[in-house]
């Protein structure tokens, strides 16, 4: 039984010594690798800070450089602490405390470095994505405004139909088939009055057709130019300026299209059609003729109210159509754009965070290996890891101690033999 325990202990010691030799070899370049990762993160942090500091100059460069150096030093020191201390502690409370500290430190690193690294990696593409998204919004607003304006202009057919009905009635009245008395009397004048109002409204509606199409065509030309700006090569600063100018112009055209929509004009004209009626003096030569004119005019006014209600309903349908969104282009820095459109740049974010938090994987690896070493060695310690040089130094120290003991030992008194 004891022999078996001794064999297991010897095997565990050999296993622990093997792992310790691997750790000794890895320690020779771990600090260098950690320094390279910290320096790389600092470089990308510098590029990200430069996108936030717009003003050129030596002080701006110095500020960005100072920040990136501070980030590199902070990352190197923090992970050096974690690599050394967390695998070495043994109690559960100590491990939990250091793990919490590592979590807080990782959040701090992401907050001060990783998002700037992502801005350096994908900031330009994020700004272009913002431009492309803005173009889509402007296109939707332009098409909606044009659709509403065309819908309002299509009320011309309804106005023409109502106007034609009054024209036909006036012709019938002139022939005497409406009131029963031929001629161009009071009834005829009421009918021609409303027909003239509707004809003027019809002319107004027809006059806006060409401006609507011209404005829509100009908006499409600006949209095409904005699409080209969003994908063309070159510095972002100049492109965003030109994009902003086109966006302002396009917003004005969308507003113009909304103003060209004639539906509100038709609604007001329909109200005036029934409210504003100038009744002529009855000109019948006999009381019977005047009574017939009065009765016919009452019927005509009822008809006018019906036709006005029909036009008002048609205009209300157009006015209740969804209105175009108020799209306003707000220029974004690369750092802001990469946050707003983070889901579009998951690989860039993954790379930016990984370069900062990769040492956490090394910490866990060393923790596992140290636990394996302790398990293999057991509760007792061993000096089997002594090198030849350390063994020689130990033997020399032991020899010096032995000589010191011999020198310090007092000589024994010689005893005389009894005679």
UniProtKB/TrEMBL annotation:
Protein name as it appears in the record: DUF4407 domain-containing protein
Residue ranges of the TM segments: 25-47, 59-83, 95-116, 348-369
Keywords for the protein's UniProt record, in alphabetical order: Membrane, Transmembrane, Transmembrane helix
PROSITE patterns from the UniProt entry: EF_HAND_1
Organism of origin: Paracoccus aurantius
Domain of life: Bacteria
